[in-house]
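Notebook entry, structure prediction.
Reason for the run: the old model in the group folder had no record of what sequence produced it. Starting over properly, with the input documented here first.
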Amino acid sequence: MNKMLTGLRLPRWLLGNTWPTRSGEPLLARLETREGRFTSLVPDTGDVIGDHHFGGALALPPTVEAHCHLDKAFSRPRLGQLSPGLLSAIDATTKDRQNWTAEDLHQRAERALEHAWHSGVRHLRTHIDWWEDTAPVAWNVIAELAQAWQSRLHIERVALVPLPLYEDKTATQRIVQQIAQSQNALLGGFVHSSNFEASTLKHLIKSACEQSIPLDLHVDEELNPEAQGVALLAELMQQHSDAPPLCIGHACALAAMPRSRALGILDSLEKSNISLVTLPTSNLLLQDAETGKTPFHRGLTLYKEARARDIPVMIASDNVQDAFYPYGQQDPLEAFQLAVPTLQLENPFDEDSKSLCHTPWLKDARDNASALIGSEARLLVFETTEATSWPSAPKRSVFEFSD
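New structure, fully documented this time:
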């Protein structure tokens, strides 16, 4: 059974360069569905009364939670007083792991999934702390939740391993084998000046290439202008023509480097199959953080400079109500709202909303194709028609047009 949806204001990145405009704004769209998928997208001329008419409301595809931590979510109430900064948050989380029973993890992670689902997320990638060469309890708990939620949410798991653990080749082999045998799983790691070793990072990339396992790494989550992680990864990915996809989370140090060096690194990234993920909430809270001091530096990566080079940059929630970010819900639009003023985005709805919705960037940095036709008939429809002020009115409804 077909359904006709009319009066939708879609972002320019979904419409293409030839879409007609009026007074500088794209014409409203008409969408048709069949068997639960979009089959037609044309300008809405007002000559058809659809099954659903949205009166010019803004609409987006479902959002992607490109980087989060389900194993830590909603642990803040039991952590007590916290000191500012990233390393203090790591210490607090390490102490809290004694509470991470299967029941505790299941309860907190499912609460986060409920939030994500109701906000409109349909693809979620979670990093899971992995501090030994055998999988932690959380790895299996999240796998069980992924199975239980598979009809609603596609969930990917990333093993968040401290870089020094990869120094041991036997331990690395064990970790890689477990990831290879896991469904929807990626190899990950924490790369920071406090633990950086070039030979270890080279070994990690080589191991991922040998097993064709995609990578998602926390890299240079700091404001150290001498940080080397992103630069070395760009170099290594160019050396390995068979390298699997790589997502780099944070990359805060790019904003602290001399501009010429940072832009040179971005030039190298442009030649590689690498996506960036920026995490406004935790990075703004934890970087340049000292008691009694107003932060001077922002902790965000060079978003505009990366996008000018066609390097994908996704915006995601990172942490929710834990030691790293004590606030928020599992809703990437909250992080996006913060990104708009801090990154000074000029056209958040028509251009930058792609960073919330374009799932292919998680698998292929070069995949810029944007198409609704053939995709599942799902939309987030906002309670506003004003693209110029979005997302100041973030209230939305999630529509799934199944036959």
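Summary: The chain has two domains: 3-61+372-400, 63-362.
The old model has been moved to the deprecated folder.
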